[in-house]
Every structure is written in structure tokens, then in C-alpha cells.
Amino acid sequence: MAQELNSVNISLDFLSVCEAAAIAAARTMGQGDRKYSDHVAVEAMREKMDAVPMRGRIVIGEGERDEAPMLFIGEEVGAGFHDGADPEEFPEVDIAVDPLEGTNLCALGANNAIAVLAASERGGLLNAPDIYMDKIVVGPSSRGAIDIDAPVKDNLKAIARRLSRDIEDLTVIVLERSRHKKLIGDVREAGARIRLISDGDLSAGISAAVAGTNIHALMGIGGAPEGVLTAAAMKCLNGEIQARLVFDHERLGVDKAKVPPANEVLARLREMGINDPNKVYDTNDLAPGRKVIFVATGVTDGALLKGVRFFGAGRRTHSLVMTTESRHIRFVDTVHVEGGPDTVIRF
Ligand code: VTB
Q1: With contact defined as beta carbons under 8 Å apart, do 294 and 236 qualify?
Q2: Using a 6 Å cutoff on CB, does residue 199 contact ligand 1?
Q3: Mind listing the pLDDT tens digit for each residue in 256-265?
Q4: Under DSSP, is residue 320 helix (H, G, I), strand (E, B) or coil?
Q5: Structural domains of the chain, with CATH
């Protein structure tokens, strides 16, 4: 019998993993090289991941093995795979990573870049394909009131009712993309305010689930892998995501030549066990795990998390650590002391 997963204890190991990725990426902030920022985040995350006491398997990562040298889908990570380790002593863990969510944001020094990871017992996170996904994300007050198939105005009405306010008092986050022309028009017509963002719908979704951020919903099409990570966060924050895969070029507002042919995508989905490409996924479909862990560390400053700060003798990181098992939402402010015993720690 393999060791039972203690998600609360291991969440602190995962915290170190995200902190390392965030620090590495933050060093490259504003350098204008998004690929390099991503690369250093992946390397740092991969290195730390190996110290975590687990037999981990990447279910959402940097892509297929041939295109990603590290943190590829199916890669086995953790101390349980070291030579001489007794596998029975290490819990089996599935892991979804996004070492740098918002690579452009980091490269430009813009707000809301984060390093992210979700984990669970085996089978607890959907093995989502790396294609687009239409999403609607709301916080606990609006859970059960939304329907991804309903007109935008109806969803906004329902959210406003749950929040005891008018539609005019809502703010919806939408990725600024030509594919969202109709969505943006519909939100405007309904009267809600909009915050258009250039990148990073995962951190935006988390903000929508936390009261006090003045974000009440995220709507629109982003990446499917990030949808699974969002779902893991929603399980811990009592929020809700509804989602559907998108691969139709018309819905994506691009030339047919820009997306893989539909029959190819459908075959790939079937291979992954997805027989109904139009299925509406809810939070539990995307993150069905009983023990779900979610960790994010700020790279640049954001709505919920501060970015990494560097000072002479250390660094300071700000993270969110949560598990469905403990019902603790931890905001962790860590000073990583680099200097000697004379280092001054500031409040
Ligand atoms: C990006 C990114 C998002 O989806 O927009 C991406 O900023 C896909 O959209 O955070 P484009 O291909 O149009 O850029 C996300 O990565 C995640 O959902």
C-alpha cells in the first residue's frame, strides 16, 4: 500500500516549488524575453520538485515530451523516484503546473504574472488537452447562479442579484482578443463594467472568486490547461468555473489555416478519453480530486499577490497556499534570507 497523501503537509513543499519559480522568473522581469522568463521558471520549478516527498506525475505541464525537456506531460517527479527510495513510503500525486502564467506580463514587467501549481491524489485533475477553452468563473456568492450557455445578460443579472447590486456595479474581466468582440459588446450592452486584460486569465479567475478585489466574473476563451488550474483554485475558494473546449476557427475568430483540422483535434480528444467535445465541464469535472492543493506565488505585483522583491541579502515572496482538506486559505509572506547572521529582517 502506497503512503496516503497528506495534502496539508505537502502543500508547504509545493510552496517552495512555486516560490523558486517565481524568484527565477522575477529576476528576468522587463527583459522583454518571454521565452527566457518561462524557461528559468520551468528550470527552477523542476529542480525543486525533485525534493518533494512524493511519487509525482505531471498531468498538465509544458507539453508533450518531444517539445518540452522538463515538466512534460507524463514526467515522473519527486523524491520517491530517487535511486534507492522505497516507493511505498511516498504518496502518489498528480500535478498540474504553470511555472509562469503570464509570460508576456513578466517580460514587460506588467501586473499579475504568477507561478502556479495544483496537485491532488491520482486522477484528481483532468488531463486537459492544450487547446482553447471557453470559461465563466465566479465567486462563492454566485455559485449555482450561472450557466455558460445562457445569454451574457442573464448571467450578469444572476450574479448581480446574488451580490445584491445592479449589473452596472459589476466588473467582468475579459482577455482583450478579437475573438471576444461579441462577448465584450454583450457585456457593455448589459451595462456591466469591463476590465480588459492582455494576458493571464488564471489569476483573473482567482480574483473573481475573492471578495474585495472588485472583480465579479471572468468570461471568455483562454487555455484549457489553465482552466483545470482555475478549477483547483475554485474548489479551495468555494468559487465556480463552467467551461467548454473550443477548437472551431470561427469561434476563435481566426483563419481556418491557423488551427489544427477539427478531425485531428477530435481524434486527439478521443485518445485522451474525451468523447463529447461539446461537454460543459464544471469545477468538479475539471478537478474531481478529494484532496486538491493549489499554490500560486506572485512574480509581478497583482490584485491578490505582491511580486517578488529583491534586497541585498535576500528576497521576499508572497503566495497563496490552499487545500480542500484543511479549509485554510493561507497568504504566505516569506523572507528568503541569503545573507549571513547580520542580515536585518524588516517587517
Ligand atoms: C493567453 C494567456 C492566458 O490563454 O491568452 C492564452 O494570456 C491563450 O490566448 O492566460 P491567446 O492564444 O489568444 O494568447 C491563457 O494562457 C490561459 O488561459
Answers
A1: yes
A2: yes
A3: 888 889 899 9
A4: strand
A5: 7-123+290-337 (3.30.540.10), 132-286 (3.40.190.90)
Residue 326: how many other CB atoms lie within 10 Å:
16
The closest of 225, 220, 155 to 191, measured between CA atoms, is: 155
Could you tell me if 337 and 310 are in contact, meaning their C-beta atoms sit under 8 angstroms apart? no
Is the Cα torsion angle 36, 39, 41, 44 positive or negative in sign? negative
Q: Which of the listed residues 132, 175, 255 should we mutate to test ligand 1's pocket, taking the one with most ligand atoms within 8 A of CB?
A: 175
In one-letter notation, the amino acid at residue 253 is G
Chain length of the chain: 347
pTM over 0.90: yes
Residue with CA closest to ligand 1 atom 12 = 222
Backbone angles phi, psi at 169, to 5 degrees: -95, 5
3-class secondary structure, 48? helix
How is 319-345 classified by DSSP, letter by letter?
EEEEETTT--EEEEEEEEE-S-TTPPP
Q: pLDDT tens digits, residue range 174-230? A: 999 999 999 999 999 999 999 999 999 999 999 999 999 999 999 999 999 999 999
